[in-house]
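COMPLEX REQUEST
Ligand: zinc ion
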Amino acid sequence: MGIPYFDAHCDTIARCLALPDQGLQENTGHVDLVRGTQLGRYAQIFALYHSPGAAPPDGMLAQCKRLYHRFAQEMDENAGLVQHCRTGADIDQAVAQGKMAALLSIEGADLLDCDPAQVALAAGWGVKFLNLTWNYGNAVSGSNSRESDRGLSPQGRDFVRELERCGIYPDVSHLSDPGFWDLCRMARGPVVASHSNSRAICPHPRNLTDDQFQAIRDSGGVVGINFYRPFVGDGDSLELLTAHIEHFLNLGGEKTVCFGGDLDGCDVLAGGLQGLQDIPLLYEALKGRGYPASLLEDLFWNNLRRMIR
Ligand SMILES: [Zn+2]
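STATUS: Structure written out below.
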């Protein structure tokens, strides 16, 4: 019996689109279906991502549609292995059939031209999480990399309201701190951070302060632990990664912490991890630290599964 793994963020679809010989079934990146089959249960939220700094001539929305179509094509071509899931019931059914569950997110409102009128399109595709920004500021908000003192614009507030109306969770990973608090003040439902660590453990602006973590927890959302080494800290041990998990658990995060490894979205992973094939090492490391089975099940599956209704 393999282990469960439900991950909130990877950039594999952008990699597949950029590199035609690197399909989802088997590739030389961090995530593919062959490696996914080695896990006992595997669900993955695939981000549609493209850098706003390299927008194609026909624009970001057109690129977003190309990314979605590449995702849909991969689902069709690998229908025996993986199923696109829009609901929690879809996930449970895919797992019962021995298939991997694939879900969608969008990384950066830029990919919808920051236009609230395009949110319904994404919802129709089954998008579940949407990062308001990537590393660039946009018409919705500043990011925590650029224009980091700028919060949500009036258009950004309209965008968030439309996300909530359409059943898509606003995702704060990459968002500026003022944007984070603007969002938390206006949110009517859960706020998520799909791939962000603890700033108390690793003081990087991409990571969350304790107050931010607790605000997400109190909203009913989740925080996905990111494996990208610069967000984990100096050093190369799995202990450094588990320090982020344990810090969040000590903040009352037993039902909040999940994983959002940023696989295929970064070049170097922490703790010697090489990709999806090494998730069992992480599971065993936490088990070795005395985590009870019920907590492992929450971290590796239930906490994120609960978000998808
Ligand atoms: Zn990211």
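REMARKS: DSSP finds twelve helices and eight strands in the chain. The longest strand covers residues 41-49.
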